[in-house]
Amino acid sequence: MSQSNVVAPPAETAEKIHLPRTSESDTLKRIRHTFSHVMAMAVQKLFPKAQVTIGPWIEYGFYYDFDHPEPFTEKDLKAIKKEMIKIINKGLPLEREEVSREEAQRRIEKLQEPYKLEILAGLQDPITLYHLGEDWWDLCAGPHVETTKALHPKAFDLESVAGAYWRGDANNAQLQRIYGTAWETPEQLTEYKRRREEAKKRDHRRLGKELGLFIFADEVGPGLPLWTPKGTLLRSTLEDFLKQEQVKRGYQPVVTPHIGRVDLFKTSGHWQKYREDLFPMMGDSEDEGFVLKAMNCPFHIQIYKSSLRSYRELPLRLAEFGTVYRYEQSGELGGLTRVRGFTQDDAHLFVTPEQLDDEFLKVVDLIQSVFNALQLGDAFRARLSFRDPDSDKYIGSDDAWEKSQSAIRRAVEHLGMNHFEGIGEAAFYGPKLDFIFTDALDREWQLGTVQVDYNLPERFGLEYVAEDGSRQRPVMIHRAPFGSLERLIGILIEEYAGDFPLWLAPTQVRLLPVTESHVAYAQQVVDQLRLQGVRAEVDLSGDRMGKMIRNSEKGKIPVMAVVGDKELESNSLSVRTRAQGELGALPVDEVMTRIGDAIASHGSF
């Protein structure tokens, strides 16, 4: 499956920010692509020795890679931007020209740009050039705006310079990549910059360290998070929540090893189709070799195969919080959202063909229940991740793919879900219904997924005894509501800005004793709360009350309570919450009841 975010955050941080998405705006694609050409023209005008390579539009902007003997500096970026504005203000036309391969080669050789010759060698006819005015051109298929008058000189910025290898190969030349952002209006640029600053504040890597949730250690290795006690409590809370939901819905827990024989993954097809993402084989030969598992499905299939199943046993729902390992490239790693070892809330359902539609709908209902509990219920679109019929990366017959894709389409149409198709996004063994979540900063992430699979049951020879005594092939449903715990937690940290709702917070209640003489009473109350399952603690720092309150606020503790002489005498607590502020003195029994009810209902105190 793909590796693929209660109390709301404060209003000022929970605001949704809407900017045009690249995928939704053909105009924006043209604008950004044109800005990349304008930048390349400006660079070559200011730095004649610079050679251009490629310069596409990307989400939020554009980039161009240059071979230049000297590093570009911040001062250089300012000069390049200034020159770009001059070019934009000239209103230069962008004109497409179709030429023969020989003519393109002649012009490139005249410019003495070897990178363009390499690019030309990989192009298919027709060969097209785009001219920016009369003085600059590049190999390009477009699209572009008609004239630089369509570009607003105050709606772009140059953001950074990074290293990039030619063709992405470390054995090739080191280039310099200049990144820019571009928009239709200055207002959109301003909003983008504001959102970017907000994203820095919410960065889960920074907040995770500040809140003491997880660490990465060079001695362990990149992409392998280590969970602290607080982070482990957060993980366990999410796991327990989903396990309880699964038990209600007839799932049965299983546990499988972290390694398996190469032959297992040959049968599933992962060894042939997914090998570059597997960790290197352990052993001297493929016949006896083992690999770290990158997915749980072949293991759950073996549990199904361990006995001959009757139709009366189906659906059989096997669930596991299984840790898997994928050999992501170091440049693709990013905090918790892209790691090498991660835990999936994985389950595999073995159903009869007649049960498929109903069981699929039940899985979608479970995923929506999970999103609602996390207050993400209205923040997703459904992607129908289907096979690209022109690609050879898939296994199985056309008939199997048609049946599985039709099942997914029937489900989303029955539910009236907001959905779109992603051709080529299917797993190699079957299509998926992916839940694309939009976070508080309007970024998209894939979380939950449901997959329909006719192919692995065929490859592993799965059977069940039908009502008429015949042997029939079951259908598999792969599903993961969270996707991966690591990615989900990273997204939730940023969605909540670290301000977790009461039921999720690693520390739910902190008691603040005014003096040493109040510590025993505070500890007594904490012990009562812990017996009730509340994650509570006493601040034993001995700091002044103002500092203890500030530290609790910084640690984003949902409920804190001051314990002094009055509270000791009246068996009460002076309660303060992040959601509602000061609540005053409340009896201990009332506090315990209200906290217990709030946690159970995923609400606020």
The overall pLDDT average reads 89
**CATH fold node name of the largest domain:** BirA Bifunctional Protein, domain 2
**What is the helix fraction of residues, given as a range?**
25-40%
Number of discrete helical segments: 19
Q: Oligomeric status of the shown chains?
A: single chain
Number of domains: 3
Termini separation: 37 Å
Top CATH class of the largest domain: Alpha Beta
Q: Briefly note the structural class of the backbone.
A: alpha+beta
DSSP, total strands: 28
Shape: globular
Read across the widest sheet, the strand sequence of neighbours is 11-15-16-23-20-19-17-18
Identify the CATH architecture of the largest domain. 2-Layer Sandwich
The CATH superfamily of the largest domain is known as: Bira Bifunctional Protein, Domain 2
Unreliably modeled segments: 1-18
What Rg, in angstroms, do the CA atoms define?
29 Å
Strand content: 15-25%
Summarize the main sheet. 8 strands, mixed
Can you describe what's shown?
The chain contains 19 helices and 28 strands. The chain is α+β, with helices and mostly antiparallel strands and 605 residues long. It has three domains: 22-197, Threonyl-tRNA Synthetase, Chain A, domain 2 (2-Layer Sandwich), CATH 3.30.980.10; 209-256 and 310-495, Bira Bifunctional Protein, Domain 2 (BirA Bifunctional Protein, domain 2), CATH 3.30.930.10; 509-600, Anticodon-binding domain (Rossmann fold, 3-Layer(aba) Sandwich), CATH 3.40.50. The strands form seven sheets. An eight-stranded mixed sheet has the order 11-15-16-23-20-19-17-18, sandwiched between helices. Strands 1, 2, 3, 7 and 8 form a five-stranded antiparallel sheet that branches. Strands 25-24-26-27-28 form a five-stranded mixed sheet, sandwiched between helices. A hairpin with a 5-residue loop joins strand 21 (464-465) and strand 22. 39% of the residues are buried. Mean pLDDT is 89; it is low at 1-18.
